[in-house]
Amino acid sequence: MIPFADLLWVAWYAAVAAAVVAVVGLVLLHALRGRSMAVQLAVVGVATVLATVSGIVVITLMMYLDAHDRSVALAVVIAAGTVAMGVSVLLGRRLVAANRMLVDAVRADPYRPPEGRLPAELAELARELDAAYGRLAAAHEREQALEASRRELVAWVSHDLRTPLAGMRAMAEALEDEVVSDPETVRAYHGRIRQEIDRLTGMVDDLFELSRIHAGALRLYRRRVGLDDLVAEAVEGTEPLARAKGVQLNGRAREGLPLEVDAAELGRALRNLVVNAIRHTPSDGTVEVVGGVEDGMACVTVSDACGGIPEDDLPRVFDVAFRGETARTPGGGGAGLGLAIARGIVEAHAGKIGVTNAETGCRFMIRLPLAP
């Protein structure tokens, strides 16, 4: 039996020999860190075999084995090391092939997940890449839709600005050239010019509001208000328009429902919906504004008697500059921003807005979180 002290010396010299080989291997790995993974695995395999061989050599020398026993031990170690190196090379080739498969998938246009079986880490990377490409595709689609809506908005605004400007120019030239001189006609022209200026001012305000919403610069000054107060103010502010058109406007809301909102901005969104409903309801129709609670959230519905919206147009009602066949935006020839602004304001309050067809018309719905 070998004395314990001799075993310690054997272990010490074997560890020193293996450490020397390991240091050399680490230096090689550092130098080859930019090379293929198969090359690095081959270096690891060679270093492992050499470390084992050096340990066996130290042991055989210290134990004074004869040449035959030393040759047998070295042959066994070298054979095992050769197999280990072969396995390392095969593993490296497999990793390289899997990596090449992943690179080809990334370079493909459009990206397609690799069809072959990948190691767990590369498979996870492929799934993450698939999800990232999905997010990029969705963002690209949103960008294209936004760009299309912007082009459409520019076209609508150009048209809607040109018409009142041409009218005001004609009336101003008539007044300047004294083509009209009787006081009544002059007063009527002045009134028309003032109306067109007010209309253009409203369009500019809407454009500014929408630009703030799209830029994320809409600042909300929240305070606690009651849902019934918001509904009452919206009905009161649009009552003259309903009366002038002969539309019956009814509003009611459950009392005691607190909201933490910007009353001015949210009131504007609600008025846009009510004005939109009044403008598209016949003179003998009714517009209902109802506030309550549904599924733990404050809910305001604006129902009109417009006859409904084509099902294909419902998803686009709140898009910028969308008008559809019946110009479903407040302003009667405006830039088509009222409903888009309403959606932006509601979503800025962490709420949701939608529209569905009802029996006699449409039902617009706003959902908002209740204040604690």
UniProtKB/TrEMBL annotation:
<dbReference type="GO" id="GO:0016036">
    <property type="term" value="P:cellular response to phosphate starvation"/>
</dbReference>
<dbReference type="InterPro" id="IPR036890">
    <property type="entry name" value="HATPase_C_sf"/>
</dbReference>
<dbReference type="Pfam" id="PF02518">
    <property type="entry name" value="HATPase_c"/>
</dbReference>
<feature type="transmembrane region" description="Helical">
    <location>
        <begin position="12"/>
        <end position="29"/>
    </location>
</feature>
<keyword id="KW-0902">Two-component regulatory system</keyword>
<dbReference type="InterPro" id="IPR003661">
    <property type="entry name" value="HisK_dim/P_dom"/>
</dbReference>
<keyword id="KW-0812">Transmembrane</keyword>
<dbReference type="GO" id="GO:0005886">
    <property type="term" value="C:plasma membrane"/>
</dbReference>
<dbReference type="InterPro" id="IPR003594">
    <property type="entry name" value="HATPase_dom"/>
</dbReference>
<dbReference type="InterPro" id="IPR050351">
    <property type="entry name" value="BphY/WalK/GraS-like"/>
</dbReference>
<protein>
    <recommendedName>
        <fullName>Sensor-like histidine kinase SenX3</fullName>
        <ecNumber>2.7.13.3</ecNumber>
    </recommendedName>
</protein>
<dbReference type="InterPro" id="IPR004358">
    <property type="entry name" value="Sig_transdc_His_kin-like_C"/>
</dbReference>
<feature type="transmembrane region" description="Helical">
    <location>
        <begin position="41"/>
        <end position="65"/>
    </location>
</feature>
<dbReference type="GO" id="GO:0004721">
    <property type="term" value="F:phosphoprotein phosphatase activity"/>
</dbReference>
<keyword id="KW-0808">Transferase</keyword>
<keyword id="KW-0418">Kinase</keyword>
<dbReference type="Pfam" id="PF00512">
    <property type="entry name" value="HisKA"/>
</dbReference>
<dbReference type="InterPro" id="IPR036097">
    <property type="entry name" value="HisK_dim/P_sf"/>
</dbReference>
<dbReference type="InterPro" id="IPR005467">
    <property type="entry name" value="His_kinase_dom"/>
</dbReference>
<keyword id="KW-0472">Membrane</keyword>
<keyword id="KW-1133">Transmembrane helix</keyword>
<keyword id="KW-0597">Phosphoprotein</keyword>
<feature type="domain" description="Histidine kinase">
    <location>
        <begin position="156"/>
        <end position="372"/>
    </location>
</feature>
<feature type="transmembrane region" description="Helical">
    <location>
        <begin position="71"/>
        <end position="91"/>
    </location>
</feature>
<dbReference type="GO" id="GO:0000155">
    <property type="term" value="F:phosphorelay sensor kinase activity"/>
</dbReference>
